[in-house]
Amino acid sequence: MIAQDVQDFLDVVTKATTETAIFSALEEHSARLHDHLLFTCLRFDYDGLVMSRLYSNREDVSPTGGSKPLPSSAWADRLILEGRSYVGRSRQDLKDVFFDHEALWAIGCESVMNIPVRWLDRTVGTINILGRAAQFEEETASRFSVCAQLAVPLFLKTA
Hints:
Number of strands: 6
Distance between the termini: 34 Å
Order of helices and strands: HHEEEHEHHEEHH
CATH topology: Beta-Lactamase
Number of domains: 1
Structural class: alpha+beta
Strand content: 25-35%
CATH class: Alpha Beta
Mean pLDDT: 92
Low-confidence stretches: none
CATH architecture: 2-Layer Sandwich
C-alpha cells in the first residue's frame, strides 16, 4: 500500500509543470496518510540565518513567503544537524519548540511532525505537518520522509 502511494506521488511529481503543483501533491499525499490541520514547507538559508516558507495550506496562519530566524535549540539540532525527524504529540511539545504555539493551538494543532529535507548531508528545509493531539508516530515520519526527499529540488532552487 505504501509503495503504491509513493508511486502515485512520484507520478505527479514527474509530470508536474509548476512548483505549486508539486507542493500541493505533497500535501495531498500527507492528507491521505494522516489528516492534518496545517502543512508547511520551509527552506533554510544558512547565510542569512533564516527559514523561509515556500508553501502553506493556511495562508491566514502561516503565509507563504514569511520567514523567521533559524532557531538554536535541541529541536533544531535534531532536524538541522542530525537530519532526524521530530514528532511532538502534545500541546506541551508544541509549546516547547514553537514560539508561536498559541496561534497553532488556536487552529486546533496539538501535535507536529517535522520532516527534514536533506541534500548532500545537509538539511535544506523541512516539511511541517501539524494535527490533533497524539496524531503522529515516528513510523509515520519515516514513511513520509521518502516522499519528502522527492521534493528536494524545490528546496534547492535558491538555497
